[in-house]
Design a protein that fits this description.
The protein is of the alpha/beta class and 258 residues long. It contains twelve helices and eight strands. The chain is globular and about 60 Å long. The structure holds 3-hydroxypyruvic acid (3PY) and magnesium ion. 3-hydroxypyruvic acid binds next to helix 9.
Amino acid sequence: MADINIRKTIAEKSCALGTFLSISTVPAVEALSFSGLDFVIIDTEHGPYDTETMADLVSAAAKGGMAPIVRVADVTHREIQRPADAGARGIIVPCLRTVDEFRKAAELAKFPPIGNRGFIKARGSGFGQEPWASGSLREYMDASNERLLLLPQCETKEALENIEEIAAIPGIDGIFIGPFDLSIAMGIPGEFGAPEFLEAVERIKRACRKAGKLCTTFAGNASDAKREMESGMDAVAVSMDSAVFSEAYCSLVKRIRG
Ligand code: 3PY
Ligand code: MG
């Protein structure tokens, strides 16, 4: 797999740009990897992907140098270990509520001394042959911890209420805001301009900054993505393949048929 380091990309570009995948297959992701996007989020929470397809999409994304990030379905050993071994450069965990659930995500995604990830040299390290993976076991564990970004989502009321403590958990590299679920949880569905929603986003940002962690989010369209990028987010995922696909065809048909 290509040597892709999304942490470095974020540092160099100040804000990385990506998108969500829920319908794309291997050739589509290979094509997308040459689009200029920095990362894709292979969505196994809402998308239909099984483990083998997720692993193939991870490799497909890397083809043109795009970082593969996987959104898992929940915080279990199986969910976290598989994308980590398949070569994902980031893991997003949705819908977490308690501080303990966030701690568990860090424990599963990171090797000691941070967590307790299970050891193997699998696809994600070229089966141990990639230059960064060929040192001592200690070096391998440290490099893996550094290269795999753990970005659990803040999208529940409980998570928002404890965000300062959560952002400070060792092994959590940053927070991925889920604007839809967060606004629903706050009782203001889709009201992204509401003062209390904006204050919640600022609170998450402040907590991330204070803990030295990344703050990342989703934006539904290009102008919202630009605004989020300019507002100091470290990474923004804009739209998703299914929306881009259906909007493009709707607009094509409209242009022809009026
Ligand atoms: C949400 O908005 O709830 C997400 O999970 C990301 O779009
Ligand atoms: Mg969500």
